[in-house]
Amino acid sequence: xxxxxxxxSSIIGLLLxxxxxxxxxxxxxxxxxxxxxxxxxxxxxxFSLTExxxxxxxxxxTFLENKALKIKISNKGGEINDVFLKRxxxxxxxxxxxxxxxxxxxNSSLSYEILFPNxxxxxxxxxxxxxxxxxxxxxxxxxxxxxxxxxxxxxxQDFLEYIYILGNKNQYHIDFFIRTKNFPLKRGLPFKLExxxxxxxxxxxxxxxxxxxxYSIYNNSTISFVKSFSEKNTEEKRISxxxxxxxxxQFFTSIFIPKKPxxxxxxxxxxxxxxxxxxxxxxxxxxxxxxxxxxxENFSFSFRFYFGPLDFNLLKxxxxxxxxxxxxxxxxxxxINKYFFLVIFQFLEKTNLNYxxxxxxxxxxxxxxxxxxxxxxxxxSAIMKLIHPEIEELNKKYKNEDTLKKQRAIMELYQxxxxxxxxxxxxxxxxxxxxYSLFKFFPTIINLRGKSFLWVDDLTSYDSILELPFSIPFYxxxxxxxxxxxxxxxxxxxxxxxxxxxxxxxxxxxENVIPDMNFILYLMPIIMxxxxxxxxxxxxxxxxxxxxxxxxxxxxxxxxxxNDEKIxxxxxxxxxxxxxxxxxxxxxxxxxxxxxxx
Length: 598
Hints:
15 helices; elongated; 21 strands; alpha+beta; 4-stranded antiparallel β-sheet; 15-stranded antiparallel β-sheet
């Protein structure tokens, strides 16, 4: 009977873990007052003014730079042509490491334009066709680039200005202002933006699964919610009351934040299976003009652009829910990663040790925190071992009687010794969210990106000791040593656990043995080997160390912490209402000794 109850709990736990893995693999993770500010700064004598003389019809570039970013802006269309992240590198397949310069925007992969009406009211003036004249203002705090273009239909009277402001420190954002003077406005201005998302990581397919558009919308004009697009190849969506929109990759993002919410915006996304480009994300909107403005009155609108890493603490400083685009998982799994694993990880980061060692320490810390649950599982196993002779007697006694009566007698025995066999299953269920949340945690932590450990060149990607000339379904075309070590450790732990159950129980009642139990138990290491071969090597390292610790705990708890007589004394203290305890303890000890010698 013990075998049936405990093994049922194990099987339920294993099946739930298999379901979670299958489900995860296949179905899944300071405002600015622009006019007053600019007037003040443009008239400030402390700013130095630099004017670049250009040939109007030739494309030229102006640079804005700080300690984190280097931005190249074209005079043709006044657009950002290139964004270079100084502190990060892209993956270089030639040297199998992150050594290439990382250009989040490159060769006009970001394009945006405004359409203006002509005198007849037709929208045929494209800002991308205009030639802008740059003026740079700078002081110790920031640099201001003013790009000025004339209306091609009305010379020296109508002007369009693009104004870029970049701080001199470590900011990853740039403020962008649009101003017009005497430009025809009509009722509003169409605005369009498109961006091609490049690949920067080792595994393009894995990176592409993390690349999508996220957006924040206002509800009742006060509370904002963050949502995302799906993993479809192409998708279109109409959004209202937009707070901001992000073009997110695995570790980097471009976020576009209008000063005023956009009432109506049409977003589209297109996926690319091959090539350097992962996705093309774009959106269109109509910037409304205030009703009380005259037809040719000056107009202004502003955005903030963020070009930078998906660093949780950095994004949180903006206080606009940007950190929610990091895919820590859904529901309460996100909370486990944000407020449990991330806290432990950041605490251990302060040791300045190698990140592989930090993951090993993190595994030990988590195991210590969960040790009471582990101890309860082993204690349940020990108690079930002691009462097994009593269960066998009940099976014989009620062999030819009603099954319900036999189960009621067994449950009464469980109540007397103060245990609940289902608690083993509950413990397994409790650990499933922790097991699954790690699948989302390690591939999204930018601090692990490009960090090596032993033979591993990047802890956020798979480690490969052998490239296969063919691809195995579910497995891939490479051999991950850490995944192989984890699977072997899981197999060893499974065998030791199974042998312990066999040694604890004399299987006299064959009807209580569940068929193919061993097959189900030994199937798990094979499934894990197939499923996580292409996952982050940090995940395989964590699970490998976790199973080594499990094996050590099994021997430590069994040999040192758990003692049959002490367990029975504790049971007696918890059940003082039962007057036959002395007799029951003596019987259990005697039958257990006979069970061992026999």
